[in-house]
């Protein structure tokens, strides 16, 4: 068991070192998305701000009326949303033109995180920062890591397809590469599932806390 763990660690280290540039590229797009989301909050006018607050306030009725709001429901929603993203990234990896779209997906993920955190900080100040750290950070540690790795794997597969189209003589079996690609994506998706599990436990608490803040805020 220890030997297996050491071997896996060595494989992961070699992989990250070999493709450090791609990881850097994906992380750059993620940071661009986060920065853009955080900056965009400054352009939100009072009307849009009230609409966002009213939208968040609608959770008040959901929480109060739906006594069965639990981890199972949240997990189903989270896993469906995240698996759809993984499938999209997996499919885009099969096409060379999918590389820029994968980077855009990562940037959009970053945008949502940046905008959400910036909104809570702007509206609730230090309490908003605390809420973001306690209830948004835990699941995103797993989700962001999982999406970064799957994005790199997807890009690598696209690049391999392009290389093997050019170098037909040395082209290995596409089916074997496709199966390995799919299995790798499936294994990494386990990290995404863990993130969804964490989210399913933190989200109901998060919504109730936000509901309490909004109730006081909108009075």
UniProtKB/TrEMBL annotation:
It holds the Pfam family SpoIIM. InterPro entries: SpoIIM, SpoIIM-like. The chain crosses the membrane at residues 20-41, 88-121, 141-162, 174-198. It comes from the Bacteria. Keywords: Membrane, Transmembrane, Transmembrane helix. This is Stage II sporulation protein M. It comes from Caloranaerobacter azorensis DSM 13643.
């Amino acid at each position: 068991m220890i030997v297996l763990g050491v071997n896996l660690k060595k494989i992961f280290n070699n992989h990250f070192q070999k493709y450090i540039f791609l990881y850097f590229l994906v992380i750059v797009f993620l940071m661009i998305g986060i920065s853009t989301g955080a900056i965009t909050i400054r352009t939100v006018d009072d009307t849009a701000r009230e609409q966002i607050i009213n939208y968040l306030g609608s959770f008040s009725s959901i929480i109060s009326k739906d006594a069965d709001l639990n981890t199972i429901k949240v997990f189903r929603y989270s896993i469906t949303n995240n698996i759809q993203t993984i499938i999209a990234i997996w499919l885009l990896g099969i096409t060379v033109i999918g590389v820029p779209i994968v980077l855009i997906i990562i940037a959009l993920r970053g945008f949502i995180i940046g905008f959400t955190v910036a909104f809570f900080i702007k509206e609730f100040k230090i309490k908003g920062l605390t809420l973001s750290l306690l209830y948004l950070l835990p699941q995103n540690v797993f989700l962001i890591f999982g999406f970064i790795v799957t994005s790199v794997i997807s890009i690598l597969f696209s690049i391999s397809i392009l290389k093997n189209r050019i170098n037909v003589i040395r082209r290995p079996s596409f089916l074997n590469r496709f199966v390995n690609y799919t299995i790798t994506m499936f294994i990494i998706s386990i990290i995404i599932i863990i993130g969804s599990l964490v989210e399913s436990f933190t989200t109901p608490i998060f919504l109730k806390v936000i509901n309490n803040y909004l109730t006081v805020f909108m009075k």
